[in-house]
Design brief:
By secondary structure, the protein is α/β, with parallel strands linked by helices. The chain has helices at about 5-15, 25-30, 60-70, 85-90, 105-110, 150-160, 170-180, 190-200, 225-240, 245-250, 260-265, and strands spanning about 35-40, 40-45, 45-50, 55, 75-80, 95-100, 110-125, 145, 165-170, 185-190, 205-220. It contains 11 helices and 11 strands. The protein has an 8-stranded mixed beta sheet with strand order 5-1-6-11-7-10-8-9, sandwiched between helices. Strands 2-3-4 form a 3-stranded antiparallel beta sheet, with helices on one face.
Length: about 270
């Protein structure tokens, strides 16, 4: 029988090169004093350019507060397209991505995710005066509008067999038909529905509990254990002390329960 020392030596030989190297991801950023953070800057209320042409939004505010708590003095935001984030992390174009990304099995193979700090919930939207629709069960016999090819369409077709599902190529037409009465309801994210309602001053409202949740987190390079742990601690503190809820109210909506919805969605994480 081999000794434990010989087994350890054998394990070291078969580990991938660098797998047992010291992780300096956090120390490197602390010494540098600046962290490069990627987000789209074209996705309000999550990230956008404010009136002063500087990055603003929920993701931006979360990143600033998170790295302040970690002790990194400067946050430099880098705009990039959603489709480029994973490659950008792995080519060191930036240090982290803070863009409320959903953790999928494919992404988790090549990058690491922090604990969630954001959630999008998908709701039923109806006209302001509608009193008959208040949850998924009450959609029976009613028309339901969804954007074609989205997860909302898939969910509706799987879960609403007794409703008339109507698909739309243009998101704006959904709400035009809802307001005119050609549609009884729409399934859309709270964020988008609320944006359409606010910008266009539409007499619509969300009803019932969210139908589907999508949790979002920050992304770090694979194996950046110390950096991810520090970000996790800061985000957990921000969740516990009310900071995430406050930022959600500020950027997403006064009646948007960011932390409450995260708590409901945690089982899927």
């Amino acid at each position: 029988m081999r000794s434990w020392k010989s087994l350890l030596a054998l394990a070291a030989l078969v580990l991938p090169i660098g797998a047992h190297a010291a992780d300096t991801s956090l120390d490197d950023l602390l010494k540098r004093g600046v962290v490069r953070v990627a987000n789209t800057q074209t996705s309000p209320p999550w990230s956008f350019l404010g009136a002063d042409n500087k990055p603003d939004g929920y993701d931006v505010a979360v990143a600033q507060e998170m790295f302040k708590r970690i002790g990194i003095a400067k946050v430099e935001f880098i705009a990039d397209k959603f489709k480029n984030f994973i490659e950008g992390i792995n080519t060191q174009k930036y240090d982290v991505v803070v863009n409320s990304l959903a953790k999928t099995p494919d992404r988790a193979k090549v990058v690491d995710f922090t604990v969630p700090y954001a959630v999008q919930d998908f709701r039923i939207w109806v006209g302001q005066k509608n009193q008959g629709i208040h949850d998924a069960a009450s959609l029976k016999g009613h028309s339901v509008g969804v954007s074609a090819g989205t997860s909302n369409e898939l969910w509706a077709r799987r879960n609403l067999p007794d409703s008339e599902i109507r698909t739309y190529e243009g998101g704006g037409l959904l709400y035009s038909d809802l307001i005119s009465g050609r549609l009884d309801s729409v399934i859309d994210s709270y964020v988008h529905g609320n944006s359409v309602r606010t910008v266009n001053k539409l007499p619509i409202k969300p009803v019932g509990e969210p139908l589907v949740y999508s949790l979002g987190a920050a992304v770090v390079p694979k194996g950046a254990v110390s950096l991810r742990a520090a970000m996790d601690r800061a985000l957990e503190e921000m969740r516990a002390d009310g900071t995430l809820e406050t930022l959600g109210h500020k950027y997403v909506g006064e009646d948007y329960d960011m932390v409450g919805n995260m708590n409901k969605a945690d089982k899927a994480w």
